[in-house]
Amino acid sequence: MTTRIVELRRGILKKNDELAAGLRQSYTAAGVLVLNLVSSPGTGKTAFLEWTLRELKARGSRVAALVGDLETDNDARRLAASGAPVRQINTHGICHLDAEMIGKHLDGWEGVALAGLDYLFIENVGNLVCPSSYDLGEKIRVALLSVTEGEDKPLKYPTMFNSADAAVITKIDIAAPCGFDRDLALRNINEIRPGIRIFETSAKTGAGMEEWLEYLAEERAGRNG
Amino acid sequence: MHELSIVTSIVETVTESLTAYPGARVLEVRLRVGALASVIPDSLEFCYGIASEGTPLEGSRLVVNVLPVVVHCERCAQDAELDGVQSFRCPRCGELCGEIRQGRELEIESIEIDEMDKVEETA
What residue spans define the domains of chain A? Predict the structure, then answer.
């Protein structure tokens, strides 16, 4: 028996990372701001996105969305009511979106070209664990948390919140009946991702949404490079 | 539960690297996994047995080296290792630190292979 140690030093998700780097280049070349929305199932990603697409469109922005779910095109149909082009990605059991799925669905998307968009939103599969490992080439990863989920969610799922560029608290219109401790939630998010931009929103009443839209416009203008 | 896809990717990567060592069998695969990598070592090991079946990796050991999070503290102007992932405060001065220097790694460090005695083969 002749044994030998071979140094590999290879990233396990290298294939995904390479594809994501390619996507990032094409997003930049097309001048489209790409956001990846991640949260638990039921946080209200779709309602938040419905509002965002509708308002951005009403204000003259060119928007589109890719939405990931294990099965059904229910979310795509909901989002399409905004008038924006929406494409459903069914992962059939896979718990996250990856760069290959994004590339494939961008390629064959009839009537939608990246160069014709100002914003592309990717609504990830509802899961606070796995999507954090998969870069989709996005500029901004947005982690959402609803007031019904408990203020300690960022502590329970630190990886996701730590990898996010912005945090959104949803359903703040029902914060009081839920006994939501706002200060504690903000403190927990900040403990895991110091200095992260936090938005407190309600897609039902529109609270906090103007600030969110301003942020999007600033990011698109490249305020932060 | 994306450990299975991670393990599948490990098997693919290692198998590809074996083209330089025809006929070799893998004895051990060593990983470097950051505490922020969202991967559970036990689940990896569980899936590894299934994913490596029928490949040159079958029967090999998976060694997962978990790396703690290291942040850079601006106030102390140096790096600091964290005990866990529940708080990103500098253990020396208590300042919140946004800059991660280590903890997101997810890579294959090395493999140990048995080259199956070449001498015998040529004899």
Answer: 14-220
Fold of the A14-220 domain: Rossmann fold (3.40.50)
The one-letter amino acid at B35: A
pLDDT tens for each residue of A111-158: 999 999 999 999 999 999 889 999 999 999 999 999 999 999 999 999
**Three-state DSSP class for residue A123:** strand
B88 to A162: CB separation less than 8 angstroms, yes or no: yes
Q: Write phi, then psi, for A176 (nearest 5 degrees).
A: -65, -50
Neighbours of A72 (CB within 10 A): 10
| Second-level CATH architecture of B3-115 | 2-Layer Sandwich (3.30)
ipTM of this predicted structure: 0.84
Closest among A36, A42, A43 to A145, alpha carbons compared: A43
The overall pTM is greater than 0.95: no
Find the helix or strand (DSSP H, E) in which A86 lies.
strand A86-90
> How many CB pairs below 8 A link A and B?
110
Interacting residues of B36 by C-beta distance below 8 A, sequence separation 6+? A158, A159, A162, A163, B69, B85, B100, B103, B104
Partner A, chain B 47-106, Cβ-Cβ below 8 Å: 85-89, 96-98, 100, 104, 106
Residue B81's DSSP bridge partners are: B70
